[in-house]
Amino acid sequence: MGMISVREVHKSFGRLRAVRGVGFEIEAGQVTGLLGPNGAGKSTTIRMITSYMPPDKGRVEVCGFDTQTDSAEVRKRIGYLPEDAPSYPEMSVEPFLRFRASLYGIRGKNAKMAAQHAMDRCWLNDVRKRRIGHLSKGYRQRVGLASAIVHDPKVVILDEPTNGLDPSQILAVRKLVRELAIEKAVLVSSHILAEVERTCDRVVIIARGKVRADGTPEELLAPLGSEVGYRVGCERQSRDTAETLEKALRAVQGVQEIAVCEEEPDWVRAEVKPAQGTTDLRPAIGAALNGTQLIVRELWREEPRLETLFIRSVRQEDEQ
After folding, report:
1. How many Cβ atoms sit within 10 Å of the Cβ of residue 47?
2. Residue 131 DSSP code
3. Are residues 280 and 176 in contact, defined by beta-carbon separation less than 8 angstroms?
């Protein structure tokens, strides 16, 4: 059994069926990304996991405890960062984190140590005495992250954890999430697909209340391997540049289709689709172009990304 176990859960609000038979398990040592468009059922699923609301049908367990019958035990073991992290703006950072620790039964010196550890991990020592309401959005987000891990939970659920952070802080949060996942189960909900690709070991895509895809990014993208393409860009030297480029590319073994674009006055670009089952064609394409007088400015491989799978999964569900 996983640290988080969601078994065929359903949840409706009147006639709206928000979640319809969602099921997955998350182990310790794993970062799982929960993806889906607005209204897909992500937030409802998270609220059922965190005991904010019960499922109509099905069962949710966290660390072996049922979220309905043992909700107090579940809450002790979860660190939850909602998208808009709640706080008391009139409180300073350190007292707020000590207060948060006390809610989990951590008091006295232990609360002070827990707050200090959370501030160290979330880079808050410089603002420890400042009021939360006077902090920037990025710092307030970091305070929310610190409050989610101050009690050292077994399960961490983060909803848009990099919201409001600058690029350097985003890199630091990625590192922190990876560190947390060494011993904990981490569930990350985000609409930034590139962020999920870089951070998560596994992806669960939800659309219209159902799980549409579940697996590692590599597993999910493997069926799209035949959709790899190549882009080649050359300087326009004469009227024959496009013809020369196309002729050179057609001589490459493994090339199936070529589309030459001449929209820009100084550039000629070509999109190349390989035959199914071919290996990386960049060395062969480079060698073929090297034998011409073309001035090549770009040659890159375009591979399927999580965004492609996400859009396709949502579109398939909409068509059903």
Report:
1. 19
2. B
3. no
DSSP codes joined into one string, 60-108: EEETTEETTTTHHHHHHTEEEE-SS----TTSBHHHHHHHHHHHTT--T
Entry pTM? 0.78
- Dig out the tokens for 78 from the structure: 């979860």
Nearest to 42 by CA among 188, 141, 242, 232: 188
Cα distances (Å, whole numbers) of residue 278 to 209, 273, 285, 305: 38, 10, 13, 19
Identity of residue 16: L
Residues 6+ apart with CB under 8 A from 252: 281, 284, 285, 288
- Compute the Cα dihedral for 22, 210, 208, 311 and give only its sign: positive
**CA gap 124, 65 in Å, rounded:** 33
Distance CA 191, CA 5 (A): 23
Q: 272 φ, ψ to 5°?
A: -115, 130
More confident call, 101 vs 307: 101
Residues 139 and 129: their CA atoms lie apart, in Å, by 13
Reference 2, options 151, 220, 204, 191; nearest CA is: 204
Residue with tokens 């589309």: 259
Contact at 8 Å (CB) between 151 and 79? Answer: yes
Tokens of 114: 């827990």
Strand ordering across the sheet containing 57-62? 16-26, 4-13, 57-62, 65-66
pLDDT digits (tens, 9 = 90+) for 44-92: 999 999 999 999 999 999 999 999 999 999 999 999 998 878 899 999 9
Could you tell me the domains of the chain? 4-222 (3.40.50.300), 229-302 (3.30.70.260)
Spatial separation of the C-alpha atoms in residues 96 and 161, rounded to whole Å: 19
| Cα dist from 135 to 18, 26, 93, 143, 199, whole Å | 36, 34, 10, 10, 27
